[in-house]
Amino acid sequence: MLTNSDITQLTHLRRKLHKHPEISGQEAETAKTIIAELHPLGPNEIISGLGGHGVAAIFDSKIPGPTVLFRAELDALPIQEISANPWKSEIDGAGHLCGHDGHMMFLMGLGRILSRTPVQTGRVVLMFQPAEEDGSGARAVVSDPAFDRIRPDWAFAIHNEPGRPWGYVSTRAGLINCASLGLGIKLIGKTAHAADPQDGVSPALAIAELIPALSSLGIGGDLGDDFRLVTITHCQIGAPSFGIAPGDGVLFATLRTPHDDAMDKITEQARALAAKSAAKHGLAVEFEIHDHFAASINDATATQIACTALDKLDIPNGDLGLPMRASEDFGVFGWGARAAMLCLGPGENHAALHNPDYDFPDDLIPIGTRIFEQIARDILDDPD
Fold it and tell me: Sorted alphabetically, which PANTHER family does this protein's record hold (predicted)?
């Protein structure tokens, strides 16, 4: 259990990190701070540079048993914070507006407890993941050769989710977060004088065709196995000029599906539509993939372990608000382990994630820590 001194120190650390956010792929100083805080806790090993700036701390009982990984995120968002708090972001255009600073404290709190009362069997891995917000971090971490040394049997994560009651945990077996992918389509033609557009090759008509065509691939609806959603997020043709007929165009679409195989299929369909339209209008086409998130699917046994831990702690839980259309870069950990994501409520009226006035509530730190500790104890201290 965390002491009052622990909670005070973790709150101070959370606010320190909040003042110095680093966006995806740039978390070098955040990682250094975490490593410095981990060393006094005496983990058996600290691995740094995982998949970029990832950090893993290993607490090993030296008794054979499972490896249980608990994940938090290092990165912040490229959003300007609006706040009167003394710990407001000091970095222009960046802010911890998703609560990753708080999630890190769940792991730091667990590390403090394990340093005093180790697990009886197996290993606990505290995994501080980089680049969650753009969907690149988890794949980079699990693809890193160093990850083989900590490859887990079980993996758990907690994300705070405004809109849920204070201290309530949403979870379920099966789909938690949709797969999503950002598809960038670049159409390449030739400019012309606006008085003689026939001398050029304009992407305008192709863009006009593609917006409804791509949108029709996924119209949303109920979040079942057949759910598909395509959201046009950006488009542009040519330069802002009245004298030049455009010669190139860009279209961004975000694709969402409940499963990774469905994402592969809808991506192929979207690319085929774009290629067909480009050919029709005499354009070349290029594609880019951004923000590729795997679906986050909870393993049934891992979910039951988590729910049993929540019941032991008298923490209210259920499947409120699940599954979600929004994506989370945790699903990849479930490809090689039994994994479960938990959604912890900061209150129904708490500012939404990614809002400029969002701030993680520090009073959730001991709750998240207790949940992780109970899961670890149930797997490793009472393995039967």
Answer: CLAN MH, FAMILY M20, PEPTIDASE T-LIKE METALLOPEPTIDASE, PEPTIDASE M20 FAMILY MEMBER
Burial class (CB in 10 A: 0-12, 13-18, 19+), 184: middle
- Longest C-alpha distance within the chain, in Å? 80
Same domain, 172 and 207: no
Q: Could you say which of 292, 320, 336 is where a domain stops?
A: 292
Number of structural domains in the chain: 2
DSSP 219: E
Asked if residue 192 and residue 164 are part of one domain, the reply reads: no
Whether residues 51 and 160 share a domain: the answer is yes
Give Cα 61 to chain centroid, integer Å.
30
Closest CA to 14 of 118, 87, 75, 86: 87
Residues 190 and 203 placed together within one structural domain of the fold: yes
Give the burial string for 296-329 (b: 16+ CB within 10 Å, else e).
Answer: bbbbeebbebbbebbeeeebebeebebbbebbbb
What is residue 360's three-state secondary structure?
coil
| DSSP assignment letter at 86 | T
- For the entire predicted model, the pTM comes to 0.95
pLDDT at 1: 87
Instruction: Report phi then psi at 293, rounded to 5.
Output: -110, 130
Q: Are residues 220 and 328 in the same domain?
A: no
Spans of the chain below 50 pLDDT: none
Same domain, 26 and 153: yes
Q: Which two tokens stand for residue 247?
A: 């010669």
Coil, helix or strand at residue 347: coil
Tokens coding 265 = 């299929």
Q: What is the CATH number of the domain that holds 195?
A: 3.30.70.360
Number of Cα atoms under 13 Å in the Cβ half of residue 275: 7
pLDDT digits (tens, 9 = 90+) for 37-55: 999 999 999 999 999 999 9
Side by side, the strands of the sheet bearing 219-220 are 219-220, 228-237, 248-257, 179-188, 284-293
H or E element at residue 312? helix 300-312
Segments of 218-373 assigned E as strands: 219-220, 228-237, 244-245, 248-257, 284-293, 296-298, 317-318, 338-344
pLDDT of residue 67: 98
Residues 6+ apart with CB under 8 A from 36: none
Q: Find the domain containing 26 and state its range.
A: 4-177+295-380
